[in-house]
Write a structure and sequence with these properties.
Keywords: Membrane, Transmembrane, Transmembrane helix. By secondary structure, the protein is α/β, with parallel strands linked by helices. The protein contains 6 helices and 7 strands, in the order αααβαβββαβαββ. It binds 2-acetamido-2-deoxy-beta-D-glucopyranose (NAG) (2 copies).
Length: about 230
């Protein structure tokens, strides 16, 4: 190879190396806009990444307490609780409920009825639902209640009409309520014929009465039954 060509090629590679090095240096020194400054002592929550796969440290999340406080301060919550309060006050006035009653609420949802009962002064309230809502409602299958026979004075089936197996749903509430205690179930507002069908689901209780009312903003019929036979 001729000398001047060799020299030219050498210069060319030297220039290329210099450009590449400078580019790398520039990339290294400059933080692109899309990256977050890792030395920022107060990173925004969404910019805070785990340092390694073992970094389980504080990640901001909504605690139960926070979520509950938010839920419990809504107007809908207060309104729904108050609709249950009316239902229970009616039972209290008729001596079916007192502060010392042991009460079970099935299909308790996030716990409106449990809250209403607790606010009224009822000391022993158990709320269950397929999904737990700590601290008001525990997790249990309404069709297979994890309670002994006859341990409650009042059993409430807040949403019998949403049950997949209404017969089983009713039998389990009835089973856990003592003789002389009462069961209350509510369904979408319905007429006499449908009430009779629901009453037939009970195997050892006597029909007391049915009443149309507004619960959680919906027109519903609540049916009151008294347990007569011991299981
Ligand atoms: C039930 O408890 C509430 C709250 O503690 C109280 O205000 C109310 O007077 C009690 N009712 C009866 C009948 O003792
Ligand atoms: C409840 O309302 C329905 C109409 O939606 C009516 O047929 C029924 O008789 C009412 N029941 C009671 C107990 O008032």
């Amino acid at each position: 190879m001729e000398r001047h060509v060799q020299l030219f090629l050498n210069r060319l590679s030297f220039a290329a190396i210099t450009v590449a090095t400078l580019t790398l240096l520039l990339l290294y020194l400059q933080t692109p806009d899309t990256c977050f400054d890792p030395s920022d002592p107060n990173p925004k929550p969404h910019t805070r990444f785990p340092k390694s796969t073992c970094d389980f440290n504080h990640r901001s999340y909504t605690s139960h307490e926070k979520r509950n406080r938010r839920l419990w301060s809504t107007k809908t919550w207060a309104k729904t609780v108050s609709s249950y309060t009316s239902l229970f006050k009616n039972l209290e006035a008729r001596n079916y409920l007192s502060n010392h009653s042991r009460v079970l609420v099935v299909s308790a949802g996030p716990g409106h009825a449990v809250q209403a009962l607790t606010d009224l002064g009822v000391e022993d309230v158990t709320g269950v639902e397929l999904v737990e809502s700590h601290p008001l409602v525990n997790r249990a299958d309404p069709h297979n209640l994890p309670f002994f026979d006859g341990v409650f004075d009042l059993g409430v089936g807040a949403y019998l009409d949403r049950s997949l197996f209404p017969g089983r749903y009713v039998l389990h509430i009835e089973r856990t309520v003592r003789r002389g205690g009462v069961c209350v179930v509510t369904v979408e507002e319905c007429g006499k014929g449908e009430v009779e069908e629901i009453v037939k689901l009970f195997k050892k209780s006597r029909f007391i009465d049915a009443k149309n009312l507004t619960l959680a903003g919906q027109r519903r019929t609540r049916i009151l039954m008294e347990v007569e036979k011991q299981s």
